[in-house]
């Protein structure tokens, strides 16, 4: 059997162009014992992929030249020689940028498409959404009627957090940089939103937008936001500090909070977390999320292109602002 | 009936002396409905009392001149017209500096002298011990075999924390200022102790004393200790930040930690607390403590003087270092 895949022809310097990609037909082996043949139905393109096209090792290896690239994908099992997966099952994998593949079944994650559309697992039902859910549900322990401040509200985790917190019955104040992002936060449900670049007293602005102190703070930013959070949190307030480590590389250049004594004075609780440590919540998350999506409380906004050949354009479109929400390619 | 009490004759400037105190005999009324007559058996003297002798309002009113002073006391009910307390019951109160008093029963806390000696309730079984217990048990959630760093290890809360943590089966590293205090920490069970005044790299010294990183940090100090703690804590480490607010008055003059990103990088948990919010643990605390004391694992060290007339000397002795552990007067 044949499979088609997109390969990288050269490591681009500066902006990549269509010439750096090539659509190639390759032979697929027959599935062996314990293996399955999967036809991909949805492929993900993400900004982080640019890093793997640089030819230099960062925190993962670069993509190979003239070989298969990786990326998020969901597909359907069309042939199985495994006890764990049967024909018709849907699976999630990192075997993107191609229309089909053969793999050991144990390396694939089976997904439940009866409660969520399959492509949701590449966006709001993926690790991004799960990070927002873990932060609000387990780390903060958000309760109905409480007020939560979500920083970086227009970002991937932030925008999921705003919607989830509203679905949980909380009041949400978001912060983001710039008027467009502030408006976006409001459009997805934030009760109030503050442009942190347009205020010289972040704590005061958040307090005004919240109509008082906040019960919890979802930390995605660092620096001056910490100081403001320790200021604006009510007694027994909680901070969830999200494990987006790469954002913290230049933390030493940021302002340092000088009001840590508030941790004691107000009995605050601060907890850093990494989503991978909390995957036991996955089932509960998918259940809550599907309920919220069916009730129209949460929308995983998508921009969809069609056909494997559109992958390079979809990817390049990310850098031209062509997407609203998650950019996907449907096969 | 007559009662004898110590009264303050003048607000001392600088060091108080015996002349500032007067032993006076006063008339006690007969107990009315719902009231009890209590004979004090043990009285507490504490450094904080000096603040109430200044004549200026701090966080509580100053002691009156030529009137009854306050202080921790445990005594025995010798006459009762209350349903809540009967003759022979032991009670804890702030009606110290006197040998007997009449009070509404509802303002008194009954204590169980079958499991702990009554005077323990003025020391290790009082709020000081309870603070240590809440910090280790609930805030940190200390487990057997873990390593905990206790700061201010020679202080009231710190020395209780060292003993309780050892009784819980943990390894303990203490920090304190000066060789004498370091030796004291070791004498009550600390596996390692560091003189923070004698090191220019606190994190490194604690790590050496602990034989590696620590699982938890009991914060009583602030400033540079925070920075070192964020450095020396292992992944998933916990910090209990103890609500001794008065120590934090000059916090703005202390070094500010520049490594808060470790909270995220190591998934740390930090929680400030005030003991009064956790009094539901009191029963469990008294039970654990009595077991530990009977097993000889915890000793509430005491220095005992005898007779009401010794109260001024016992109090003045606090400032001359005449006590080891809790200073008490037995009546």
From TrEMBL, chains A, B:
<dbReference type="Pfam" id="PF16884">
    <property type="entry name" value="ADH_N_2"/>
</dbReference>
<dbReference type="InterPro" id="IPR013149">
    <property type="entry name" value="ADH-like_C"/>
</dbReference>
<dbReference type="Pfam" id="PF00107">
    <property type="entry name" value="ADH_zinc_N"/>
</dbReference>
<keyword id="KW-0560">Oxidoreductase</keyword>
<dbReference type="InterPro" id="IPR011032">
    <property type="entry name" value="GroES-like_sf"/>
</dbReference>
<feature type="domain" description="Enoyl reductase (ER)">
    <location>
        <begin position="17"/>
        <end position="329"/>
    </location>
</feature>
<dbReference type="InterPro" id="IPR045010">
    <property type="entry name" value="MDR_fam"/>
</dbReference>
<dbReference type="InterPro" id="IPR041694">
    <property type="entry name" value="ADH_N_2"/>
</dbReference>
<protein>
    <submittedName>
        <fullName>NADP-dependent oxidoreductase</fullName>
    </submittedName>
</protein>
<dbReference type="InterPro" id="IPR020843">
    <property type="entry name" value="ER"/>
</dbReference>
<dbReference type="InterPro" id="IPR036291">
    <property type="entry name" value="NAD(P)-bd_dom_sf"/>
</dbReference>
């Amino acid at each position: 059997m044949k499979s088609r895949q997109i390969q990288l022809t050269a490591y681009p310097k500066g902006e990549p162009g269509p010439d750096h990609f090539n659509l190639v037909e390759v032979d697929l082996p027959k599935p062996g014992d314990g293996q399955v043949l999967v036809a991909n139905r949805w492929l993900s393109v993400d900004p982080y992929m640019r890093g793997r096209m640089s030819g230099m090792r960062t925190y993962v290896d670069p993509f190979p030249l003239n070989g298969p690239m990786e990326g998020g994908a969901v597909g359907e099992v069309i042939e199985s020689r495994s006890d764990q997966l049967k024909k018709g099952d849907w699976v999630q994998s990192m075997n993107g940028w191609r229309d089909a593949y053969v793999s050991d079944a144990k390396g694939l994650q089976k997904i439940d498409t009866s409660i969520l559309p399959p492509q949701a697992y590449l966006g709001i039902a993926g690790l991004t959404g799960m990070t927002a859910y873990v932060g609000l549900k387990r780390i903060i322990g958000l309760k109905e009627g409480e007020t939560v401040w979500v920083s970086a509200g227009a970002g991937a985790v932030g925008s999921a957090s705003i919607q989830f917190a509203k679905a949980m019955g909380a009041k949400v104040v978001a912060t983001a940089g710039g008027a467009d992002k502030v408006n976006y936060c409001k459009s997805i449900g934030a009760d109030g939103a503050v442009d942190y670049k347009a205020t010289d007293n972040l704590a005061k602005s958040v307090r005004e937008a919240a109509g008082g102190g906040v019960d919890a703070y979802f930390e995605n930013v660092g620096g001056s936001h910490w100081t403001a959070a320790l200021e604006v949190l009510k007694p027994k307030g909680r901070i969830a500090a999200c494990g987006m480590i790469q954002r913290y590389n230049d933390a030493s250049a940021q302002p340092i909070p000088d009001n840590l004594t508030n941790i004691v004075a107000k009995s605050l609780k601060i907890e850093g977390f990494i989503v991978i440590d909390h995957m036991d919540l996955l089932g509960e998350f998918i259940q809550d999320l599907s309920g919220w999506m069916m009730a129209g409380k949460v929308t995983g906004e998508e921009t969809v292109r069609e056909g494997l050949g559109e992958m390079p354009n979809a990817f390049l479109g990310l850098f031209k602002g062509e997407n609203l929400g998650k950019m996907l390619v449907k096969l």
